[in-house]
Design goal:
There is one protein chain. With about 240 residues, the chain is an alpha+beta fold. The chain has one domain: CNF1/YfiH-like putative cysteine hydrolases (4-Layer Sandwich), CATH 3.60.140. Helices cover about 20% and strands about 25% of the residues. It is built from six helices and 13 strands. The strands form three sheets. A six-stranded mixed beta sheet has the order 3-4-7-6-8-12.
């Protein structure tokens, strides 16, 4: 299918992961075309049709979250759907963890033994607040046993932020200065991939893959809120095989 990307990372064989793209769906502009977000103004019937198309590639309906740029991580095996949270963890085969993005960073995690998986929504606010650390804690395995994949997010040449965003990271970790380049305007270009890698490594995660996308510039493949304003949402999904 043209609307799916398989993450390239050294996950165990029973861990399955998919990243949706913007192509191959049925939504019209400006949500064209494989929009999975039900909260962005697209026709509910068309979103349902796109989700049904995705469901054909999955063992179960994804565990959809109501994302709020926070740090709550919930259990996709037992808890109710559409909770206000920004990460989901699964241990039962067939439980599909999912996050939706359109510039924010999706992070998929699993352990080397293939016993637990997670999907986290790491926009700058959640990243700074500790969503990755909260997700790792909820997975309840040694962080050194975890593998991470960084999915499509706004790239380091396009993510312009103000002093307050830079200070939020640098005040907590001076090494975060490496993730910011000054612009003549007084703004900063932020590298959310570097910020995520720093957070993951500080938590003890050493195997980190991905992080070479840019949702803003790769318009033919990815939705971007910063680029388009009204737009669709992609999903990053992970589960354990039956």
């Amino acid at each position: 299918m043209t609307n799916l990307l398989v993450p390239a990372w050294p996950a165990p064989t029973n861990v399955r992961a998919l990243q949706t793209l913007r192509t191959g769906g049925c939504s019209p502009a400006p949500w064209d075309s494989f929009n999975l977000g039900s909260h962005v103004g697209d026709s509910p019937a068309l979103v349902a049709a796109n989700r049904a198309m995705l469901r054909e590639r999955l063992p179960a309906e994804p565990f959809w979250l109501q994302q709020v740029h926070g740090i709550a991580a919930v259990n996709a095996d037992f808890e109710a759907n559409l909770l206000e949270a920004d990460a989901a963890i699964g241990r039962l085969p067939g439980s599909v963890c999912a996050v939706m993005t359109a510039d924010c960073l999706p992070v998929l995690l699993c352990d080397r033994a293939g016993t637990v998986v997670a999907a986290a929504h790491a926009g700058w606010r959640g990243l700074a607040a500790g969503v990755l650390e909260a997700t790792i804690k909820k997975m309840d395995v040694p962080a050194s046993d975890l593998l991470a994949w960084l999915g499509p997010a706004i790239g380091p040449k396009c993510f312009e932020v103000g002093d307050e965003v830079r200070a939020t990271f640098v005040d907590k970790d001076p090494s975060a200065t490496l993730a910011f380049d000054a612009k003549p305007s007084g703004k900063w270009l932020a590298d959310i991939y570097t910020l995520a890698r720093q957070r993951l490594q500080a938590a003890g995660v050493n195997s980190i893959s991905g992080g070479d996308f840019c949702t803003f510039t790769e318009a033919e493949r990815f939705f971007s809120y910063r680029r388009d304003g009204v737009t669709g949402r992609m999903a990053s999904l992970i589960w354990l095989d039956q």
